[in-house]
Structure formats: C-alpha cells, structure tokens
Design a protein that fits this description.
It is a single chain. This protein has helices at residues 2-12, 26-35, 37-60, 66-94, 97-117, 120-148, 154-163, 165-182, 189-192, 194-207, 214-219, 223-234, 260-285, 287-294, 304-319, 321-331, 337-360, 365-381, 383-394, 397-456, and strands spanning 17-18, 238-239. By secondary structure, it is an all-alpha fold. It has a two-stranded parallel ribbon.
Length: 464
Amino acid sequence: MTEMSDNKTQNSAPAVEYMETMPLRWGHFRVLIVSSMEQIIGAALSTVAGIIIPMVALLYHNEVTGFIQGLLGAAGLIGISLGAALFGKLGDKYGYLGLFRIFPLLMVAASLLVFFTKDIFWLIIGLFIIGLGVGGGYSLDTAYISEIMPKKWQFFMVGIAKASCSLGFFGAAGLCWWILTRDSSPEIWNYLILIVGGLGLLTFLMRIPFRESPRWLMSKGRVKEAEADAKYFLGKDVEIKSLPAVKAAKAVGWLDMFRGENLKKVIFSGIPWACEGVGVYGVGVFLPLLVIALGIEHSEGTGMVKIINSVKLTTVINFFIVPGFILGLLYVRKMYHVKMLTGGFMVSALSLGLLLAAYLLHWPVWVSIVAFLFFELFLNAGPHLITFIIPAQIYTVDERGAGTGIASMLGKVGAILGVFFMPLLLKWGGITLVLIVCISVMVLGALISAVFGRIVLPPSADRK
C-alpha cells in the first residue's frame, strides 16, 4: 500500500523544465520586450535629432554652421559610445538590474532639460546624456536576452531585439511628420524631444517589477538568488541545473580584451559594426537633408515646407527598415552569419552605387528611391542585424558585458564619424562625395567581415 502511494506521489510531481532547453513562454517575451527598449529609443533619438537639425538651422541661421550640425547629430552617438563602454564593464562586475533602471531615468531628465531650456548648447548636452542611457542599455540588453532565452532561441531573440529599432526609426519619423503637419513652425522643435522622454518614462515603469539575470548570478556563485530569479521570470517549475558551473567567474581585465584571440573578436565584432554605423546613422540622421540634396524631394516650397516633405519621404524610406529586419530574421537561423554580414555590406554598396549613378546621370526620381529602399532593405537584413548578434555569440558570460560594450562603442565611433562629417562632406563635395565615402565604408565592412569572420566564427561554430 505504501509502495503504491509513493508511486502515485512520484507520478503526480510536476515536470521540471530547464532554462536552456525549455519551450518559449510569456516570460521570455516579457524579457525580450523590456530589454529591447533602448533599441527603439536609440533609433528614435537619431531620427528626432535628424529632423530637429534643419529646423534649428532654419530658426537660428548663421549660428548653426556645418560643424554645429555635425556636433548636434553626433552628440547622442558620442553618449551611446561612452555609455556602452563604461556601463558594460560595470554591469559585468556589479550586476545588470540597478543600471537597467537608471538608464531610462537619464533619458527622461535630459529630455526635460532640452524641452525647458530650448537652447542649442543644452540641446547638445541633452542629446549626449540621453545617449549615455541608450548606450548603457545596448551593453546589457543582449546580455539579459541571451542569458535567459533557451539556447535554441538565443540569437534569434537577440535579432528580434535589434529588429525592434525599426519601430523607433519608422515610428519617430511618422510621429514627427504628423506633429509638423499640424504646426509647421520651426519653434516647436523642442517638443519633438519629448518623444524620446516619453519612451524613457515608459521603459522605467516597465523595469520596476524586474529581476537580475539568473546567469549573471550563477557566474558569481549566487545560486539561490539565481534559482529564485529564474522562477520569477519563467515559472516555478524552472530549474537551472544546465547552466555553466556555479563557481564564481574570474574577472576579465580590460587590457585582456585587446590581446590574442580577444583582439580578433574585437576587430570582427567592432569594425563591421562601425561601418554599419556609418550607413545606419550617418545616412539615417541626415536623411531629410540628403533627400533634399539628391533632389528627390522636389516640391516648390521652401523652408519648413521642404523640411516637412523630406520628413514624409524619410518616413517612407525608414519603413523599409522593417521588412529588412524581417528578411534577416527569416534567414538568421538558417544562413551562416558571416555570409549574411558580408553579403549585406556588398548589396548596400551596390545600392549606393546605383543611387550615385542615378544622381550623376539624371535618371528618373523613382530609380533613386528604389536604390535607397534596397540600401535600407539589405543594410538592415545583414549588417544592422548581424553585428548586434555577433558579440553575444562569440563572448563568454564573464566577458560578455565588456565585449558587447566594446563592440557597441566601436560601432558608435563609426556612427559618430559618419554623422559628424556628413554635413561637412556635403559642404566640401556635395552629395557625390557623400555617396563615394559611404560606398567605400560598405566595401571595407565586407572585407573585414569576410577575412576575420571565418577566423573568429567558422561555419562549424556558427550555431553553437
């Protein structure tokens, strides 16, 4: 009788699910949504800044030189670069959660600073502070996602997080266009920054009921806390026995990240990210100005009329970021990532070459628009998606925050250079020089990806 009772109890015991092999649940998607917010905000920040710049230039005239325009465009990206490098290392050492809540508060405070001061100097400072928060999120969001997702879905979900930035690019452009069609005065430029502040406030509220990464806790030997947080995120039946050893991880020195095999990882994860940054941000931030320079926006109006029309076309072009990411996500679990990265760069370069030919040879406007759309489609299907996945794929848990932070920092260095020099290139050589430089950068990204990709991430290791 006792034996039958024991068997009945054993059979009725709830099944155990392990983090690395369990099926996807709502908890996974919750982590994905909450951890992806910096991607949306970073894209919105770049889009809003690119729309504010011509409005401020129209309002203040001679005060906004090409240098100031470049500085306005680069301020947020400089903050992102520094934030990614600084906070990634701090996250590895002290944990993710506290920083994860501080970042969006920085964005809210800086947005309010810009809104109430309504001054170019404080605009630059505000964009920089917002960038610090966004960059910090960049260094930790992939860590949260890759460390909580089942192994089968890790890189796909990291890709989904990156793809969410398309909502920021497209949504912010559309919202700005909607606002400007209702009040076309350049004096309302400071209201546009509240789009970023509102997203920051939403992010903070979403992160109040959140916990530390179980994998990070395990890497520090804090087993009971790791088990409790795993159950909080994913359910009471979840166990983490399949995680790496419980022994506290040895700290990785900063200089060690630039030696030996790690140096190759830095080159492979960082330089293509920098090249991609020139395309995504150098072109993206100044897209309204480039549209005007190319003659694609051909309205008879001047001033704010041209700006509003260029923002409308920018919204259309940015929309193709969405199908670009969708295309990439369809292949991210099937195709060799180095091949996706290299091929994306090459098609992007060819698209810009077509755009240059259309401009020089005065081909119909629709050719230029198609070239722009192909550029956005393949840049986002390949480099923009894959460069975000690579760091989580090649670095171990104890160095992931630092490795991702360095890669993100280098990516933003490329973005900063692209944004800062874009108005200067327009001044020195017009749209022709801009396109030649951008084509060259895309080709460089393809070469680095092809050479170092097979060394750091050979085909046999791509799905491990």
